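ARCHIVE RECORD
Type: protein–small molecule complex
Small molecule: zinc ion
Source of inputs: curated submission
Record status: active
Notes field left blank by submitter.
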Amino acid sequence: MAIADFHCDVLSKMLYHSELNPLDASVNKGAVTLDVTLDRQKMGHYMLQAYAIYLSESKPKNIYPVLRSIDLFREKIASCPDYKMVVCRDDLQQAVAQGKIAALITLEGADGLEGDWALLRTVYELGVRILGLTWNYASWAADGVLEPRQGGLTAKGRELVRISKELGLLLDVSHLTDTAFWELAELTERPLIASHSNTRAVCPHPRNLTDDQIRALIALDGRIGLTYVPYFVSDKNKVEVEDLLPHIERICSLGGENHLMLGSDFDGIDVYIDGLRHPGEAGNLAVAVEKAYGKTFADKLLNENAMSFLLKNLPE
Ligand SMILES: [Zn+2]
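STRUCTURE (tokenized, with ligand):
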């Protein structure tokens, strides 16, 4: 069964460790290694991968590493014939028709845009189609989930929502505070995604979504990417693939059968679900979901809901 994954951090690892190459397994043996490689994506039957640009908290946060990340994506991933860079609906349809892995650029945290609309428009022109307003702390646009003051959107953040709508840039709520989530949900007139978050009802971590937030995302016809970060799944010592199922059931019980997708967070984590350590093991999830809920729902979760979202919301 084909897999669409809405979040990985391979670009960030490549940005700070220039020796890494997702196309060459032989360099994947040092102290820092990649989870997401082409070989493993093929092994896991990937049809879509979103690549997040993420700037480390301990490194400069300006436009330069954002542009370097876009260049890495183009030079080291999108230029390979196994991938098709996707910036519009037509690109996605072509990727599917040609059996290529659709590759999408997202930006995790608005920090590097420095509140400058020229930079926002420029990264959009270069192919960024989804933007998360923050990582875990405050950016100029909003507060992230670990920011002690737990604020919402700044005035500039509100402006960002308006300009994103004009551009056709989609917004991602994963990492926002609850306050920022609700301010954004009220302000947006477009579907929102939570690219990599689970349910707080099953695992009470602040990075997960409350039932009301899940209902709001569903009402906007947005999407929720189930994430494999073990401590967002369960507080057990050894987290297994089956531990994701209660999150799926919770979201479906709230009406989210057509709104669930995947957001692995591979290369953004250094602990893993047992049996789900890299894209090549995605089949274990596919088997568990199909066994529990049947093939029709498994196809929705694994790829159809993600694809239908992009075919509806990417620019024409
Ligand atoms: Zn993240």
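CURATOR ANNOTATION: The domain at 3-313 is CATH 3.20.20.140 (TIM Barrel).
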